[in-house]
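Recap for those who missed Tuesday's class. We walked through two folding examples back to back. For each one, the amino acid string is listed first and its predicted structure tokens come directly after. Nothing is annotated here on purpose, so try labeling regions yourself before you check the end of the notes.
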Amino acid sequence: MNNPLINPGIGTFFWMLVSFGVLVFILGKWGWPMLLKALTKREKDIEDKLNAAEKAHEEMKQLTAHNEELIRQAKQERDEIIYAAKLRAEKGAEEILAKASSEANAILAKARQDIENEKKRAIVDLRNEIANLSIDIAERLIESELSDRNKADAIIKKELQDAHLN
């Protein structure tokens, strides 16, 4: 059981100890600082990326809130535009109705005036016709014998029956 790996001799132990010490010295001088530096850099990169992700998350929240505000404003503007359009349409309809009513009243007034004018003209025509008829009757009476009263009355009755007033 004299295996040098299991029971090393004092010389082997010494050189192993020296080799281990040199290794620890080299790793301590150059290896560990580089390893710690790399770990520190990696930790800082991870922290920066987490901070950037958190910042991006906050920006997304702000953008979402801003977008929701823009959507709310757009809906409000749409509602205002629709309301204004309805008001304009109602006002236009009222104006059209008022204009149509005034035009109808003007047409009605003109028709009444025309009827009144036709009525007056018909009365004037009727008076002229009566005057002409009276003149004709008077002429015939004068031409006939004015002394014969019965004959004159018969002529007047006959002329009145012949001239039907339409």
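Example two. Treat it independently of the first, because the proteins are unrelated.
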Amino acid sequence: MLPNLTVFHDPSISYNVVEKVVEELKITYEIGIQLIKRRELEIVTFNKARNQYNGQQLLNMLIDEENITYFLWLVNEDLYVPERNFVFGLATQFYGGIVSFFRLESENMKIKESLHECGHILGLGHCKEVCVMQYSKNLEEAILKPTYLCWKCKILLKETEKKIDKNKD
């Protein structure tokens, strides 16, 4: 069984959107949600010159401060990582991830990118099939990818689930 997920969200995000993302995470990955919790962004990660938050620093701070694994943080601010103009999200396998809704106008896109980052958290890499785990280097590519996992990723997820269960014993 896959571990339960904790979902953090920026207080400026509509709770209805958070609920819809959570519902899709439950359906797609067949996981439980342990907790849904509001969390402000850390101002020390804000880069004034770029007018963006450093996504990697935010992710690392949350991992260190909360001392938890398997979490997803939904934020409304623009994120970047060094050497990239922006990111829709980022994740560390078997720890947590962060998704920026800043450039994602539709609810469908917010759900899609949340599903994508959650896949990384659960051990999936980028996929070359028609799959939510496809890499998107721009908004157009993100719009075109589906909201579902391909059969290959479903198999990989089941294998990961078995490994997680084995490590619990």
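Answers for example two:
The first helix runs from residue 15 to 29.
The CA atoms of residues 4 and 32 lie 5 Å apart.
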